[in-house]
Structures are given as C-alpha cells and as structure tokens.
Amino acid sequence: MKILKGDKVEILIGKDKGRSGEVLRVFAKSEEIVVKGLNLFKKHLKPTQGQKGGIIEKERPIKASKTMLLCPNCQKRIRVAYSIDKNGDKSRICRKCKSIIVSTKK
After folding, report:
1. β strands within the chain, DSSP E
2. What is the pLDDT of residue 102?
3. Which UniProt keywords are listed (predicted)?
4. pTM of the entire structure?
5. Is residue 2 within a helix (H) or strand (E), and if so which, with residue range?
6. CA-to-CA distance for 39 and 16, rounded, in angstroms?
7. In what order do the strands lie in the sheet with 77-78?
8. d(C-alpha 91, C-alpha 82), whole Å
9. Could you tell me if residue 34 is left (phi over 0), alpha (psi between -120 and 50 degrees) or otherwise beta?
10. What are phi and psi of 57, to 5 degrees?
11. pLDDT in tens, 31-78
C-alpha cells in the first residue's frame, strides 16, 4: 500500500470530501486507513464498573482508494512513484515536484 501511518491525505468522496488529515492506522489487508478527525461516527456506551457511559465520537476506517496523498513539499494531491537508489533502499517520490516523501511516523 502506498499510504503509510503519519502521512497526510485528502478525502476524495463522501461527506468529508476535500478535507485532509493525518493517517492514524493502516489496515493493509483490507486496504483501509483511519484518518484523524475524519469519517466520524457516534457510539453510545453503557456505563461499566470502571467507565462512565455516554456518547463518544470515533473515526471509522475509509478505503484507501477514496483518498489521495498530499505531498509535504508542494502541498498537492499526488500519486506516489518509487525509486531505488544504489544502496538498494526503496523510497517514495512525488510525481509533481520529484521530492522524496518521508512519513512522520513508522
């Protein structure tokens, strides 16, 4: 999958179209990601012995194909290209500004 934890993405379709946020979790098998503060839903919790009840908001996973990566340098929506240097290290590259994309968390 070309989107990693810590990347900044923009939502392409749905109720959060045009909004952007940071990727919190990546589910590679189902090709879904969780974006901080986007695609929220409300969950009603019953009180338990150690926890108070109430209504909380949680992020719901969204398909990775419905998002696009934002380049940290040019701030444009991009598709990712890969390059392999002489040492054999594989790195992600912005197709528009040709800069290397490094995720903030791993």
Report:
1. 8-11, 20-27, 32-35, 40-45, 54-59, 62-63, 67-70, 77-78, 80-84, 90-94, 100-101
2. 82
3. Ribonucleoprotein, Ribosomal protein, RNA-binding, rRNA-binding
4. 0.83
5. none
6. 7
7. 62-63, 32-35, 20-27, 8-11, 67-70, 77-78
8. 6
9. beta
10. -105, 135
11. 999 999 999 999 999 999 998 999 999 999 999 999 999 999 999 999
Please, what are the domains in the chain? 8-46+54-101 (2.30.30.30)
Q: Amino acid identity, residue 74?
A: C
C-beta separation of 1 from 101 below 8 A: no
CA angle 4, 41, 31 (to 5 degrees): 30
Q: Is it the case that residue 104 has pLDDT exceeding 90?
A: no
**Separation CA 96–CA 14 (nearest Å):** 26
Q: Are 24 and 105 in contact (CB under 8 A)?
A: no
Return the higher-pLDDT residue of 104 and 49.
Answer: 49
Backbone angles phi and psi of 14, in degrees to 5: 105, -170
